[in-house]
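SECTION: protein entry
WANTED: fold as tokens:
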Amino acid sequence: MTTRAERAKIVQAVDEKTKEIACFLAQLIQFDSETGREGPIQEFIAGRLLSMGLDVDQWVPDLTELAKHPAYIPAEGRDSRTSERGWRVPRRPVGANRCSSMAT
């Protein structure tokens, strides 16, 4: 459960980064990420996670294993698409903001 102080801290952090968040979203919507065309946006997101000082893991999911899950939904072109995840490594330096060059 989040305390009021924690919530206030989160809201303040979001307020301070509103311009950066809007810039990032503006960049995201420029990508054609329909089924089978996700590669460029996945690479963009992986790069962004790396610039934030996160480690990034990219892999092609095992569809045989996924198909065993009750929520699995088959899709065309899924056999070679990668998945990404990023996680924080505390001692890794944070990269530069990629949105700084975007016009306001």
Notes: The longest strand covers residues 54-59.
